[in-house]
Design goal:
This protein has helices at residues 104-115, 131-147, 152-169, 181-197, 204-211, 215-226, 230-248, 253-259, 265-276, 280-289; strands spanning 6-8, 15-20, 35-43, 46-50, 53-57, 62-65, 70-73, 86-93, 121-124. It is α+β, with helices and mostly antiparallel strands and 290 residues long. The protein folds into 3 domains: 6-169, Jelly Rolls (Sandwich), CATH 2.60.120.10; 178-227; 233-289, Homeodomain-like (Arc Repressor Mutant, subunit A, Orthogonal Bundle). A hairpin with a 2-residue loop joins strand 4 (46-50) and strand 5. Helix 1 packs across helix 4 (181-197), helix 2 packs antiparallel against helix 3 (152-169) and helix 4 (181-197) packs across helix 5. The chain is globular and about 55 Å long. The two termini are 32 Å apart. The model is unreliable at 1-11 and 75-82 (pLDDT under 50).
């Protein structure tokens, strides 16, 4: 009988965790798109697909990827039928570690990694440098989120920075060249504009002019940085704000729809339900009950 994957996450947490023989993330619940994914094959083996390339991960492997890995079961032989596949997965929000305009570590390290996260991919096996320490840190992060002692948010952020430092120090990931920082700064400027003007019409032309790029080049860079088109990103941002308003205000669903920039309540409810798997009223009811 197939086990269901366990997933522990709240909307405030920058880390998703899943384990089991399915170990799949419910992406509708993930409030972030710019992530690092860790997959630890605790038992058995699994076929993984990345950029249309297929490889088999064996028991004990720890895989780091800047893109979500698709996974498929490996057919078992007669002698393997009793074996079970079990994995643990962590998805970490990279933007959680990205600071403001004057944050040097963000400018030089975190933001360039976000922009080029599609290049991040590393496989570790037992005995390799950092293997044991990475597993310890990942499990410590899981414990911090589950226990939630006083001021755990600070402890979690420290742990995530320590994890990133270890990955860089051991050569599991590399920082892109300095000239890429200019594009990173431009994308952050565009995202800041969206955060301040999401309730208005957000035009690609205005964003491109803001950062002094052509519209074509801007759209290409924005998609590379966020994984979404401008329209998709703005829609998601509005939906995230709408969910917060549903949970923290008594405004009607219609008012919230207009306040976050949607012109049609029916379209808003449809997109909201598609994103979160529940209607606005269901989200509000759940929040009131909790």
């Amino acid at each position: 009988m197939r086990k269901s994957a366990g997933q522990k996450q709240t909307q405030e947490m920058p880390v998703l965790f899943a384990e089991g023989d399915a170990a799949q993330f419910d992406m509708r619940k993930a409030p972030f798109d710019m992530f690092l994914e860790f997959t630890y094959i605790e038992k058995g083996k699994v076929r993984l697909v990345r950029n249309k390339q297929v490889f088999v991960a064996e028991e004990g492997e720890l895989i780091l990827s800047g893109e979500l890995l698709n996974r498929y079961s490996v057919a078992k032989t007669e002698t393997e039928k009793s074996n079970e596949y079990h994995s643990r997965r962590w998805m970490i929000d990279m933007q959680y570690l990205s600071g403001g305009a004057f944050d040097i570590s963000s400018q030089r390290i975190v933001d360039p990694l976000i922009l080029h996260r599609d290049l991040i991919f590393f496989r570790l096996q037992k005995g390799m440098p950092a293997y044991e320490e990475l597993l310890l840190q990942l499990n410590a992060i899981k414990t911090t989120i589950e226990v939630r002692e006083r001021f755990f948010e600070l402890k979690l952020k420290i742990q995530l920075f320590e994890l990133l430092h270890l990955l860089l120090h051991e050569g599991c990931i590399c920082v892109p060249k300095p000239e890429e920082n200019r594009r990173t700064a431009a994308m952050k400027q565009a995202m800041a504009y969206i955060a301040n003007h999401y309730a208005e019409e957000v035009r690609v032309e205005a964003l491109a002019n803001l950062v002094h790029y052509s519209e074509y080049y801007f759209m290409k860079c924005f998609k590379q940085y966020t994984g979404k088109t401008v329209s998709e990103y703005v829609t998601q941002y509005r939906l995230m704000i709408a969910r917060t308003m549903l949970q923290n205000t008594n405004d009607s669903v219609t008012d919230i729809c207009y306040n976050v920039g949607f012109a049609n309540p029916s379209y808003f409810i449809s997109k909201f339900s598609q994103k979160f798997g529940k209607t606005p009223n269901q989200i509000r009811k759940e929040n009131a009950e909790n």
